[in-house]
């Protein structure tokens, strides 16, 4: 995430297990997708990704499965990402 600017401390919240629904799942990504590709895909919403919270799912051989879990700064931002592309979100948007 070297090209990603750091999130200001105002967006960082203490984490209490089970109470914040701010994680999104990306499915069907190209196997060659990188964290930078994910940030480009999310566009402006990438500004709200929490530090060290982009997790790509790998198989037992260490190869990407085309899925990722991304933690955003708030449930509201995660909700926006989950909206249909026609409403400003990323649902049904194509990465490549």
UniProtKB/TrEMBL annotation:
Swiss-Prot/TrEMBL keywords: Repeat, RNA-binding
Superkingdom field: Eukaryota
PANTHER family: HETEROGENEOUS NUCLEAR RIBONUCLEOPROTEIN-RELATED
Protein name: RRM domain-containing protein
């Amino acid at each position: 995430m070297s090209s990603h600017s750091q999130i200001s401390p105002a967006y960082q919240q203490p984490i209490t297990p089970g109470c914040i629904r701010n994680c999104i799942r990306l499915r069907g990504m190209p196997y060659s997708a990188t964290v930078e590709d994910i940030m480009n895909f999310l566009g402006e919403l990438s500004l709200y990704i929490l530090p060290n919270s982009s997790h790509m799912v790998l198989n037992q051989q260490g190869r990407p499965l085309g899925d990722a879990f991304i933690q955003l700064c708030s449930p509201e931002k995660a909700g926006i990402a989950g909206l249909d592309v026609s409403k400003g979100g990323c649902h049904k948007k194509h990465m490549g």
